[in-house]
Amino acid sequence: SDLELQQPRSPATAVRLGVCYYLMGQYSAAVETLNQADGGALNHFYLGKCHFAEERYEQARASYMSASVAGYAADDCALAIAESERYMEDPEAALARLNELSGAVEQTAEYLYQRGACVAALGGNPEEVVALYERGVEVNPNHPGALFGLAMENDRHGNDDKAIDLYERAAG
């Protein structure tokens, strides 16, 4: 509320307000505000998150690429770009992008989830998909994507009780 009242609003204040709108699920207001912000790395990254939430995946990818150029964490941008590409129905490009990453990022829950989702989208080995999701949940027991992916795999294989538990944890 305090940020909304500040007039005139500085570009840095617009970024903070835009991120707040994003966190509150007010994506249209966030995009409008972020479009008036400073154009920095954080600004572009959250524009990407807003576009993604509103299912504008090409715009999300473009914003994440701009965030990377502007200096936002390269691995976070690459993971977000890969997710956008997967949602744009290009899991091959997404997996290729993930294959370019190396180091500590490969042990994060987000990387493991994205890789599992790409392998699943490509119709890959279901055991590999489950193993990737399980590793993601081991790394972060509360990662919603890994939990949801693992729930779907259990659901597909008739493990209803396990699937329900995982769906509930993913929603929590």
Explain how this protein is built.
The protein has 172 residues and is mostly helical. The mean pLDDT is 95. The protein contains 11 helices and no strands. The chain starts with a helix and ends with a helix.
List keywords for this structure.
172 residues; mainly alpha; 11 helices; globular
Sequence-ordered SSE layout with sheet pairings:
Elements: H1 2-5, H2 11-23, H3 27-34, H4 41-53, H5 57-69, H6 74-87, H7 91-99, H8 109-121, H9 126-139, H10 144-156, H11 160-171
Helix pairs in contact: 2-3, 2-4, 3-4, 4-5, 5-6, 6-7, 6-8, 7-8, 8-9, 9-10, 10-11
- Beta fraction of the residues? under 5%
Taking the alpha carbons of the first and last residues, their distance comes to 27 Å
The rough form would be described as: globular
Number of helices: 11
| Strand/helix succession | HHHHHHHHHHH
Q: Write down the Rg.
A: 18 Å
The residue-averaged pLDDT reads: 95
Which structural class do you get from the secondary structure elements?
mainly alpha
Instruction: Report the count of strand segments.
Output: 0
Report the major sheet.
none
What's the short story on this structure?
With 172 residues, this protein is mainly α. The chain has 11 helices and no strands.
